[in-house]
Design brief:
This protein has helices spanning about 1-20, 45-60, 90-95, 100-125, 135-150, 180-190, 210-215, 220, 235-240, 315-345, 345-350, 365-370, 375-380, 385, 390-395, 400-410, 420-425, 440-460, 465-470, 475-480, 500-520, 545-550, and strands at about 195-200, 210, 225-230, 235, 245-250, 270-275, 280-285, 290-300, 305-310, 535-540. It is α+β, with helices and mostly antiparallel strands. It has a domain at about 175-335 and about 525-550: Nuclear Transport Factor 2, Chain: A. InterPro entries: LipOase, LipOase_C, LipOase_C_sf.
């Protein structure tokens, strides 16, 4: 109790320091007559800005990988990347009291309480006797869930894409089962960034080379396999390769993952066991009409692995293998891209800007509002996705170990220059304009162009010339700290901004993280058959349908 009370009092002191002079118009503690500007010639305002930054640094302390420095956080990767060096108790109290960040904390707590106390209990009672072996039952649950959310009338805070009238429903008519819908989800669903063009040039740095693919492909099958590009023309794999029409979704980083201990399947009396987590190779052909089409899926990355096609397999067998492609992509997406790259790596921008930009800096409010909720959210919830027995360990087939390994890969590969739109689109060879249907690419390009215009106009309104950038000591201090040679450890980040264009690029890329976060966190899992995170098989080898293979606990 004494330690707990000490934590509360320490945090209250921090809040008092951060929000000194409450009688003034702003809770930042600065004289309202001090202008918003890059720098100031008024000595009193300059001094106040320095004090303002020092107060912020008193809270926003960073881990630095130095094991001799006392660490307050239990974050798993605190020695690999910078993290907020405060205890969980301190973070909870600080952000609950902070006049700005407490808004997000209240919304998050409210939503959790509504879901766990108001929505889930009646849904559980209504559906607990359902066997969930037909599409109709999953549709009913899906509609009941969305109906409960809609009744809240809080779409401005809590909503899923399926709640909006222009969303095309694929569940009721079972269109989700089709090959077209499966391909569309590779291009417009959760994490639509994994498909790659296959190149014959062994020196090609984009997509995947055929040499690499051939090392894991069952060539005994594919050497005689033909793929239709229209009703009359079929191509061999060599012809498709030469015409740059061959594409695959193969996530080789998932090759060696093993199942975790199953903690969630509530029906312990059945004869099922977890199906092996696979790393399938889904093969696509670019047809003459500009649409990609799935033509084959190889079960595992081995030269003797079985290959299924729509014509050589039973309908449920084919559907189940497509589900394994979905499962692999979802677990990789959330582990490496969502958790590792977006939350763990890019949080440094929101964690550190307040250590250098005073509340009177022109850039301050931009980062303040775009970062709202970011730091408290991830610093309070990382344990739920990385620790044994927590939520992810229970619902993912690879458990918590999978996200930990994948997030560490993202941390080790972090690079300011590659986690970009071009890195995802051109880097995968998906900038081919013959591909007519790729909503993520085309919509993201529009948003990115608008972000670029916004960044340019805004920077021009703040900085008259390049010297203004170089002379902006608060900005330059932040840039220096973000670089790989300093506490920020962001590989590829410059140590200094010499030109306005560098700041424009940074602002555009910072806004890009919103786009990629939306894409990797797309709310398709609410209809479980299209987003399976666990799949089961019968212990005696009796074939199961896809719906029979889903977790009974869900």
């Amino acid at each position: 109790m004494g330690r707990h009370l000490s934590t509360i009092l320490s945090v209250l002191l921090l809040v008092v320091l951060a929000n000194a002079h409450p009688h003034r118009h702003r809770y930042d503690g600065l004289d309202p007559q001090c202008p918003v500007s890059i720098t100031t010639n008024r000595q009193s305002c300059a001094a106040m800005r320095l004090v303002d930054i020092q107060r912020a640094r008193y809270w926003y302390q960073l881990t630095d990988g130095n094991t001799k420095t006392p660490s307050q956080t239990s974050f798993l990767f605190k020695n690999d990347i910078p993290w907020l060096n405060q205890s969980t108790d301190a973070i909870q109290y600080y952000y609950a009291i902070d006049p700005f960040e407490s808004r997000y904390m209240m919304l998050l707590a409210t939503m959790r309480n509504i879901v766990t106390e108001k929505i889930m209990p009646p849904l559980f009672q209504a559906f607990k006797s359902f066997p969930f072996v037909t599409n109709r039952e999953y549709v009913a649950l899906h509609q009941a869930w969305n109906g409960a959310l809609a009744q809240l009338r809080t779409q401005q805070y809590f909503a899923n894409p399926t709640q909006y009238p222009d969303f095309t429903d694929h569940s009721t008519n079972k269109y989700w089962e089709t090959d077209d819908a499966f391909t569309q989800r590779r291009l417009a669903g959760i994490c639509p960034i994994f498909m790659k063009k296959v190149y014959c040039d062994e020196t090609e740095k984009r997509g995947i080379t055929f040499e690499r693919l051939e090392s894991v492909l069952n060539m005994r099958f594919f050497e005689n396999f033909k793929m239709k590009i229209n009703d009359h023309v079929e191509l061999t794999i060599e012809q498709a390769l030469a015409d740059e029409r061959l594409f695959v979704q193969y996530i080789d980083e998932m090759d060696d993952f093993m199942n975790s201990i199953d903690l969630t399947d509530a029906n312990r009396t059945d004869s099922r066991q977890l199906r092996k987590v696979r790393s399938p190779i889904a093969v696509f052909i670019l047809k003459e009409d500009g649409n990609l089409a799935v033509v084959a899926i190889q079960e595992d990355p081995n030269n003797d692995s079985r290959v299924l096609t729509p014509s050589n397999s039973q309908a449920q067998e084919w559907l189940l293998l497509k589900a394994q492609v979905e499962q692999t992509a979802i677990q990789y997406c959330h582990g490496k891209v969502h958790l590792g790259s977006v939350h763990f790596v890019t949080t440094i921008y929101c964690l550190s800007f307040r250590r250098h930009l005073s509340t009177r800096h022109p850039l301050y409010n931009f980062f303040k509002y775009h970062c709202e909720g970011t730091v408290p959210h991830i610093t309070l919830t990382f344990n739920s996705v990385t620790e044994k027995g927590e939520s992810i360990d229970q619902i993912f087939a690879v458990g918590a170990n999978g996200p930990r390994i994948l997030a560490k890969k993202a941390i080790d590969e972090r690079n300011y220059e590659t986690f970009t739109f071009d890195g995802f689109i051109k880097g995968q060879g998906m900038d081919d304009r013959r591909i007519k249907y790729y909503p993520f690419r085309d919509d993201a390009a529009v948003l990115l162009a608008e972000y670029g215009r916004f960044a340019k106009e805004w920077v021009e309104s703040i900085y008259d010339h390049h010297n203004c950038i170089k002379d902006d000591h608060e900005l330059q201090g932040w840039v220096a700290e973000l670089s790989d040679s300093s506490k920020g450890k962001m590989v590829g980040f410059p140590t200094t901004f010499y030109k306005k264009k560098q700041l424009e690029t940074f602002l555009q890329r910072f806004l890009w993280y919103n786009v990629i976060h939306t894409a990797v966190n797309y709310a398709t899992p609410e209809f479980r058959p299209v987003s399976p995170i666990k799949l089961y098989e019968d212990k005696s080898g009796i074939p199961l349908t896809l719906l029979q293979s889903l977790p009974s606990a869900f």
